[in-house]
Amino acid sequence: MANVLAGGEALMGGFPLEQWFFEMPVCTRWWMTAALSASVLVQCHILSPFQLFYSFRTVFYRSQYWRLATTFFYFGPLSLDLLYHIFFLQRYSRLLEESSGRSPAHFSWLLAFASTLLLCMAPIFSMAFLGSALSSTLIYIWSRKNPDTLLSFLGLLTFRAPYLPWVLLGFSLLMHGTVPKDEMCGIVVGHIWYFFNDVYPPLHNGHSPLDPPAWWIHLFDRRPAPVEE
């Protein structure tokens, strides 16, 4: 019986999709899960996009505070466009989170900072859903941190990583025929983060104004106290 159980556990542990899912860092895993769940619930008519979008008046005058989070989860109905967004979300979110040492504190602070700026910008540009904007922020930051990485787009165009946000911007413009405001705002927020974390510190004796505060690090990275014998 023990051998049978061990074999069953090995089989379950070797399931490629499950292994890929649990190998993702925690913040990326939960964000991707929330994004897919939101689209499935909308597709099944359990939720409506009108319950998920961000509106300053709806949030702060009608106290529907969940919209501060759900606006980052919904990327549209189940479609090829959704798969396109999910691919870029999990890929570059994962790469950035892993490069931060798989630290939930540092990467979640980046998400909190970027989300707050995007929420402030949304009413100005009439943006209801901010998932694509936040994804563009992460893509921009990753691309600037990896300037020598060569990428290929659709197997037709080869370029260095810093051009990736602009290639995707051009692709969105070609597909939809309008300038994607959400991606533009994401690039702006990404540049602010990149400047104050990678450009500003070497010029000011290593001072990084956007590092997470100590209480935030303690909240996410605290370790259980050792058990006394």
Automatic annotation (TrEMBL):
Q: Does the keyword Endoplasmic reticulum apply?
A: yes
Q: Which InterPro entries match?
A: DER1, Rhomboid-like_sf
Instruction: Report the transmembrane regions from the record.
Output: 30-53, 65-87, 107-130, 150-174
- Compartment(s) where it occurs, according to its Swiss-Prot or TrEMBL record: Endoplasmic reticulum membrane
Any one Pfam family here would be: DER1
Q: Which GO terms describe its biological process?
A: response to stress
Tell me which domain of life the UniProt entry assigns to the organism this sequence originates from: Eukaryota
SUPFAM superfamilies attached to this UniProt entry: Rhomboid-like
Tell me if Transmembrane helix is a UniProt keyword of this record. yes
Q: Name one GO cellular component term.
A: endoplasmic reticulum membrane
The annotated topology with respect to the bilayer is: Multi-pass membrane protein
Keyword vocabulary terms for this entry: Endoplasmic reticulum, Membrane, Transmembrane, Transmembrane helix
Q: Which family does it belong to?
A: Belongs to the derlin family.
Function according to Swiss-Prot or TrEMBL: May be involved in the degradation of misfolded endoplasmic reticulum (ER) luminal proteins.
Q: What is this protein called?
A: Derlin
Species of provenance: Pleomassaria siparia CBS 279.74
Q: What is this organism's lineage?
A: Eukaryota, Fungi, Dikarya, Ascomycota, Pezizomycotina
